[in-house]
Design a protein that fits this description.
Length: 317
Amino acid sequence: MIYLLFAFLIFAAGFFALRCHLIKHALKEARRELLEIQKDLSQNQILHLASPDQDLEKLLHAVNDMLEDLRRERLNYEKREKEFQRQIEQISHDLRTPLTVILGYLKFLKQAEPSETAEILEIIERKSHAMEHLVSQFYDFSRLSSHDYKIELQQTDVCRILREALLDNYQILEQAQITVTQTLPTRPVLTLGDPQALERIFANLFQNASRYGTGFLRISFEEQPENIRIQFANGTETLTPEDIPHLFERFYMQDSARTGSGTGLGLTIAKSLAEAMHGSLTASCSPGASGISAFASDIGESSERLTLIFTLTLTAI
């Protein structure tokens, strides 16, 4: 009996020694594979278990999951870097364009006749204001991105601010041959918002309509128990349904519109400001939205024209 027990102990000791050796070997192999994978994370490699062991399998499975997360994050980082580089190039282009014009006219001004001076100075002033607007857009976007833009929520008459913004931008809409109709209440309508942020949102929406809208702009107003919904609907020939999901992306501008003076940041800033006031700004399109087609027909626009609709939702008081 003692010999059997002694033999069993020797067998058990040998088994566990062999088991420890296999596990040690498996860990060495896993370490070697991990060092190889670290050399190039872009390769879709995983760790393998040289010897079967349930606990080691769980460990290597967790490590493989971590490696997959690292690869995914690396790809996202590279994508963000490329996008950032593209955005820097766009910023440089947008700033360089008016600056080049200004420098060119300043050079021409030195040789110009007195009768030409006033016209040249007017062009320089206009381009300088355009450049100032670009810098302001970039600055506001950077503050919003870093959450450094201070929003002061207070009781605000949104109808008054919207009517004033419409008057301020009426001339640019008229120059763009945009026919404006609106159904705004004449009485005060209160919302919880920041007056300056609301002015900026409305200004950006009006400027967007004047640049890329066609034919008409209809502003409608709807009061709900908890929310206020303001819709800006305008015809467009430059945008397609495929553009709609990207309109609020920073620096997004349709290729055909890149010759303009915009930055592709106006709508991004407007959406961020709306969300900072606990509201929302969304975009949709329709070839004939409810009420829009009839309106378009009334002013001579084709009902087949794509209608772009921005919906601003604010908190009602």
